Amino acid sequence: MSSRGLRLASLPVLISLAVAGCSLAPKYERPGMPVPDQYSGSAAVKNTGPDSASTVSPQAQSSSDLGWSEFFTDLRLKSLISLALANNRDMRIAVERVQEARAQYGIAASDRLPTIGAGANAQMTGNPENLRANADADSVTRYYQAGVGMTAFELDFFGRVRNLSEAAFQQYLATGQARRTVHINLVAQVAEAYFRLRTTQQLNTLMQSTQQSRRNTLDLVQARYDGGVASALDLNQARAQFDTVRADLIAIERAEAQARNALTLLLGTTIPDGLPAAAVFGKDQVLAAIPVGLPSDLLERRPDIMGAENSLLAANANIGAAKAAFFPNISITGLLGFASPQLGGLFGSSQHFWQFSPQLTVPIFSGGVAGNLDLAKARNNIAVAQYEKTIQTAFREVADALAGEATYSGQIEALRALEASAQETLRLAKLRYETGIDSFLQVQTAEVDLYTVQQNFLQIGMDSLLNRVELYKALGGGWLRDSASGSETPANGTETGTAIEGT
Fold it and tell me: How far is the C-alpha of 230 from the C-alpha of 95, rounded, in Å?
């Protein structure tokens, strides 16, 4: 075999060695969980029951497996969530961020393979007579060249390019997990905005009925005042009670408009006509119980935790790339083709041309290289801390929601009993006032107490619903549309699988 053939035959071997080069990245070990192994016993929540996730969907072994179309029961809310996933601008940005990260990974990965292209060039040079090798030679020399060439390709013996590619891949996965986080948050935000809107509507109804009741009381006191039975103080107190509710009604109308605007922003479009009728507003808007599991389950269920670990893996790979910069850099450039002084004879059998150019670079003064390694190590330490903080934040969110689950039902029952007592107190106060036993002050106090309790009841009821949504979100729920099919609804509104490439 000729020397040229030997060199060309050895080229694939060099390339395969470069691609399969060693890696100087530290061995990755997942940091320990900086949280307890169990949630607080006082924040326990039942995992079984007639409305539990396992009953509604046997495929759901955890809250993250429970589709949002099963967790939420209001058909109008489900339609609004679908609209938001298709039109919300944050969701669209998150989808494009994934495409951006995918392209960046493709760019980084392409450096692991040589770039080969075909080309041709021509060179004409006019020489003065005293620079010609032969006085009778032509004053213009010509040189034509065509062939297939390989640009400078790094033989990645120490894994620098490989680790840079791995870092880009992990960042791509982290961006995919960020998209899932946006998806989950959007589902929860639409539900919360919808519940806030429904609560303002309930408060509006309450205040209208209370205003009518206060109007009736004011008319009664006015009649008694005209008859000389009630005092001017009683009349002014009754009028003040009526005006207080009238002002509250105007404020709640403003709050209702603002709640509707907030929901419209999340939807990314106007609320359309023809939506399904809204269900009766109450605790049955969501499932009564969902699986909780252990804190360790969050590592595999929460996309923000998985994304933080992907970022940590990327930082770990960057350490390997920084270490590889201390070692020699070997690259090769090659060209195989034809060369001729005449264009017509360029592709003749005797005009074969090849060029093989290896290059070796060894760092001598490595101050900048050492700084890059220190930088990569510092960023890795930051990524570890961010990963641990993400776990701690997730643990706190679940624990807070579980604390709410353990207490809201008791608080609502107490408020329900308090409301019944306040209604009876008001009835008795009115009766005693009408018979002249007590002053109007007792009626005023009873009316204020009942009005306050009724507002608190609606507010705590809404908080209880929001807490259940927060628990569902904190456990990683909201990514799937349907548990059985394992599908999610992306920004374009079509069904697609839940897997992210590379996970």
Answer: 69
List domains and CATH numbers for the chain.
23-112+158-328+367-497 (1.20.1600.10), 119-155+330-362 (2.20.200.10)
Cβ-contact 228, 305 below 8 angstroms: no
Residue 436 identity (one-letter amino acid): G
pLDDT band at 428 (very low <50, low <70, confident <90, very high): very high
Find the angle CA(325)-CA(326)-CA(328) to the nearest 5 degrees: 85
With residue 126 as reference, give the H or E element that holds it. Answer: strand 116-126
pLDDT tens by residue, 429-486? 999 988 888 888 899 999 999 999 999 999 999 999 999 999 999 999 899 888 765 5
Question: How many Cα atoms sit within 13 Å of 290 on the Cβ side?
Answer: 30
Give 368's contacts (C-beta < 8 A, 6+ positions apart). Answer: none
> Using one digit for the tens of pLDDT, what is the confidence trace for 86-112?
999 989 998 898 998 888 888 888 777
Q: Tokens 């470069």 label which residue?
A: 18
What letter would DSSP give residue 285? Answer: G
C-alpha distance from residue 389 to each of 27, 183, 222 (Å): 22, 21, 64
The Cα 278–Cα 68 span in angstroms is 17
Q: Which residue has the higher pLDDT, 4 or 402?
A: 402
Structure tokens at 25: 């990245």
Mean pLDDT of the chain: 83
CA distance 408 to 400: 12
Q: Which pLDDT band, with edges at 50, 70 and 90, does 6 fall under?
A: very low
Helix (H) or strand (E) holding 167: helix 160-226
Residue whose token pair is 């002002």 = 247
The identity of residue 314, as a single letter, is A
What is the value of pTM for the model shown? 0.82
Three-state DSSP class for 438?
coil
Residue 200, CA distances (Å) to 215, 221, 245, 461 in order: 22, 31, 15, 12
Measured in residues, the chain has a length of: 503
Q: What distances in angstroms separate CA 31 from CA 137, 168, 210, 416, one per listed residue?
A: 76, 21, 58, 48
pLDDT computed for residue 353 by the predictor: 74
Q: List the structure tokens of 409.
A: 């039902």
Among 336-350, 397-411, 478-492, which is the least confidently predicted range?
478-492
Between 9-23, 173-187, 361-375, the lowest mean confidence (pLDDT) is in 9-23
List the beta bridge partners of residue 340.
144
Judge contact between 386 and 307, C-beta under 8 A. Answer: no
List, in sequence order, the alpha helices (H) in 338-439.
367-434
Residues ≥6 apart with Cβ < 8 Å to 98? 172, 175, 176, 179
